[in-house]
Amino acid sequence: MSLGCLHLLHNILTIRSISPRFNLFHFNSRVRNCSGRSMNQAKLGTMANGTSNCYSSKVVINDPQLLHQKKAAIRLAGPSKFQVIADFDNTLTKFWVDGSRGQSSHALLQQENPEYNAKRDELFNYYHPIEYDPQLPVDEKTKLMEEWWGKTHGLLIEGGLTYDAIRNSVASAVIAFREGVVELFEFLEERDIPVLIFSAGLADIIEEVLRQKLHRTFKNVKIVSNRMKFDENGNLVSFTGKLIHSLNKNEHALDMAASLHDHLGEVDDHMIDSASVKKRTNVLLLGDHMGDLRMSDGLDYDTRISVGFLNHNIENSLDSYRKGFDIVYLDDAPMSGVVKLVSELFSPASN
C-alpha cells in the first residue's frame, strides 16, 4: 500500500475520532491497494507535495439519523410531492471517461473557426480559478461569472456557430453518463416524478448529448439552461431568456428560462409550469459543486436530501462537502447509490 493510501487511512481514523457522527460506508469491504484497483473503482491523483493518493469507491454520510428522518418524511408524503433537481456536468456525466478527463457541455464545443475556440479557452483560463476561489465574496464572484458567460456567448455568435458544429462536437466529445442514470430516469418517469436539469451550460448541447449518448427520451426530464436561437440556415443568431450561470442556476431560473424543448427537440409551446413544480415540496438535489446546493433556492421545500459527487481534490474538499451534502459519493462514483435511494423511498417494498 502506498504512502498516499496510508495517509488517507490516517485521515479517516482522525476524522472518526473527532466526529463520532461522521460515517464512511464503503461499496467495497476494504481499501484496495492502488496497484490492484480498476479505473472505475479508484483514480490516482497527485497531492500538493507530489505524493500519490488513492481512494476506493465510498460514500460519506455525515448524519445518518437526520438522513433517516428525511427519508421517512419523503416516503410518507409520496411521489406526488417529490421532484429531482440535478446539475448536468460532472453530476449526471462522468468526471473521468476511459481514463481521460471528461469534457463539460461547454468545453466540448468546437466552433468551425478555431480562432474563437482559442479565445474561449483564454476566458476559461482567466475566469475558472475565480469561480472556485473560496476567498472571493459571492456578490463579486457573481458579477464576474455574468461577465464570463456574456463574453463567451458573444464569441459563439461572433464566431459563426452553427447547429452542425454542435452535432459534430458532441459526436467526437469525451463525455459519458454515469452508470445508472438511465435506470434513475426510468424509475422516476414511471412514477411521474419530474427531473429538472439545471445547467449553466447550453441547453441545445445538453439535448444533443442526451440524444446521441442515451438514444431515447424521458417525458419527465426538463432542461433549464441557456438556450440558443438559430436562423433557418442553422446559424446561431442570439440567446433566448436571461443569462444562467454557475451561481444563479436555481428554482428562480424557472421563471428566467426560455421555452424548453421537450422530448429532445420538439418545441414545447409553454414554459415549465413553475407553480405546479413548486407544489412538489420534497426534493432530491444532485450536484458536484458546493454552489449546486443553491439550486433549490426559490423553492419553499419541506424536506431536501442533497447528494454531492466529489470527483477530485478529495482530501481538501471532503470536510466542506460532508457538511454541505447529506450524502457524498467519492471518486466519480456511479449513480447506482442514488437509484437505490429513490427505490427505498418509493418502491412498494419500502412502504
TrEMBL record:
Molecular function via GO: 5'-nucleotidase activity; magnesium ion binding; nucleotide binding
Catalysed transformations (reactions): a ribonucleoside 5'-phosphate + H2O = a ribonucleoside + phosphate
Keywords annotated in UniProt: Hydrolase, Magnesium, Metal-binding, Nucleotide metabolism, Nucleotide-binding
Pfam family, one: UMPH-1
Domain of life: Eukaryota
Cellular component GO terms, alphabetical: cytoplasm
Top-level EC class: hydrolase
BP GO annotations: nucleotide metabolic process
E.C. designation(s): 3.1.3.5
Similarity-based family: Belongs to the pyrimidine 5'-nucleotidase family.
Protein known as: 5'-nucleotidase
Taxonomic source organism: Deinandra increscens subsp. villosa
